[in-house]
Amino acid sequence: MKSILNFVFLILIVPSIFSQQRKITALESPKSAYDIQDSVMIKTRDGGLISAIVVRKKGSVVPKPVILQYTIYVSNNSRDLTSLKKAADHDYIGVMAYSRGKRFSPNEIFPYENDSNDAYDVIDWISKQSWCNGSVGMYGGSYNGFTQWAACKKMHPALKTIVPYVANRPGMGLPMENNVFINPNYEWSFYVGNNKYLDTIAGNDRQRFRKMQFKWWETGAAYEKMDSIDNCPNRYFQRWIKHPAFDEYWQKMAPFEKDFAQINIPILVIDGYYNDSQNSSLYYLKEVQKYNPKNQPYLIIGPYSHFGAQREGNAILNDYKVDADALINTPEITYQWFDYILKNGPKPAILRGKINYQVMGANEWRSAPSIEKMSNGFLKFYLSDTKSSQFYSLSSKKPAKKNYLFQEVDFADRENSNNNYYPNPIIRKEIDTSNGFVFISDPLKEPLVVNGSFLGEIKLSINKKDLDLGVTLYEVMPDGSYFHLSYFIGRASYAKDATKRNLLKPNEIESVSFSNTHLVSKQLSKGSRLLITLNVNKNPFSEINYGTGKEVSKETIKDAKEPLQIKWYNDSFVEIPIWK
What we know:
The structure is a single chain. Helices cover 21% and strands 30% of the residues. It has twelve helices and 28 strands. Helix 4 links the parallel strand 5 (132-141) and strand 6. The protein starts with a helix and ends with a strand.
């Protein structure tokens, strides 16, 4: 019904929305301090139409810098106007542009696919308006973070800076992580794609989608049949799962490889240690550093969730009480940055270096010139086959004799799931030891800070052609509780090249390297231990890789006739970046 009402509303306003500059006076009283153009329509080079709102202070005649938000999230309340008024209050022009197909745009909705070219055209239109002084800055989080990077695929000269928070990178964090499709984005496609605004009824129907997810898990149906189980076609989901590699479909949505070389504008990235899409956001930053070393973006990162990083943090995050000094005001810092770049104001005080990070447990902020310089060493541990109490030893010495630990995974068994990697709660009294393997280090002889993203190389042989694996890093604190630090999930066949699948050879020893783990900074005390869990990823919350070598989304429980047999070799290792 809501979709029909929105369609009727669109029909009613179509005759007037094509006016480029129509003002909606009903939204504001005559005494309002703002001049609002509510129904701006911007035509793109290929004939698409983008719906936008422009807000200026009344009586303002001097051209000013423009602050642009480009989003797929169309609010039908006052939220969008409030954020645009904030730009005007800071002596900027505020512009909100909506992805093609959203709000008053008559086009079809295709998340991610048109935003790069359309954002360029929106910036071009803004730059030609009499109220723009030729400078445009962008900010926002999640999808709005992605659109800023998308706008940088082909740089417009008017774009002077971006401030992406927890930015998504389609194909590199969602809807798949290291080439494993994960489920949280399934219902999101209905939320943003069902109508011109947001389908909050579908988006908030957790019971519906959990029921679908667990029915898929229990029946062993192919992953591509998820929407059949839901009895509701999901065309975006079907579009995405046809691209399990990070192929051209994903690459063209945002800067890729050499595209980063031409990004020469100042950038401020804001992210969180417990942001689910952190590897998306930091991917962009690392690629700029790689392809344009002269342009080192700034980063602010701390113990924040996906939403907390966009606001003022979370005093309690997944049951963990964060340090008092970790709480920052992201919107306030954003406008300090705009004043610094666009108006020659002072640099935000928090930016003492390029990389600015909060050290959990130390109640302090530190800075470094680059992510690599956050650490001054690594702890290298081997995943040994030697018992250490109830676990196996995480040993600093390479084993003298090659050996392995054996694991068998029955994908037909739906009573038990594997790889409980998600950091909620962050601190827990126990971890799941029912399957997989756990490796623990000796107690630390001195305090140190885990600083950065851990990496490793897993040596294994399997009786099939592929597997999805999970590696999780914990601190075991002196009181015996487990502090979740970081994790990795990924598909072995894409470990060498995310753009091309390379199947494993059955019963041959293979090396699976990984580095795309979540960055963290945590003070560890003397007596703490480090702990690694190693497992196969098999649970209701992501795609199941049965190992046949076929397209994973087409595999079913019928492909589980033979259990997966794994030999985890004891010369496998992890390297944990530290500062001491």
